[in-house]
Amino acid sequence: MGCCSGADQEKYDELKRFIDALPTKQGELIRVLHRAQGIFGYLPREVQVFVARELEVPVSKVYGVVSFYSYFTMKPKGKYEISVCMGTACYVRGAENVLEELRKKLAIEPGETTPDGKFSLRSLRCVGACGLAPVMMVGDKVYGRVTPDMVDSILAECE
Amino acid sequence: MEKIKTVEELKAICLARQEEEKKESVSILVCGGTGCQSSDSQKIVENLQAELAERGLEDMVEVVRTGCFGFCEKGPIVKILPDNTFYTQVKPEDAQEIVESHIMNNEKVQRLLYQDPKTGEHISDSKHMDFYKKQQRVALRNCGYIDPENIKDYIGQEGYQALAKCITRMTPEEVIEEVKKSGLRGRGGAGFPTGLKWQFARGYQAEQKYVVCNADEGDPGAFMDRSILEGDPHSIVEAMAICGYAIGASEGRVYIRAEYPLAIKRLEKAIESARECGLLGEHILGTDFCFDIQISFGAGAFVCGEETALIHSMEGNRGEPTTKPPFPAESGYWGKPTNVNNVETFANVPVIFLKGADWFSSIGTEKSKGTKVFALAGKINNVGLIEVPMGTTLREVIFDIGGGIKSGKEFKAAQTGGPSGGCLTEKDLDTPIDFDSLVAKGSMMGSGGLIVMDEDDCMPSVARFYLEFTEEESCGKCTPCRVGTKRLSELLKDITQGKGTMEHIAELKRLSQVIKDTALCGLGQTAPNPVLSTLAAFEDEYIAHVNGRCPAGKCTALLKFYIDPEKCKGCTLCARNCPVNAIEGTVRNPHSILQDKCIKCGTCMDKCKFGAIVKK
Question: Among partner residues A30, A89, A125, which is closest to B316 by beta-carbon distance?
Answer without folding.
Answer: A30
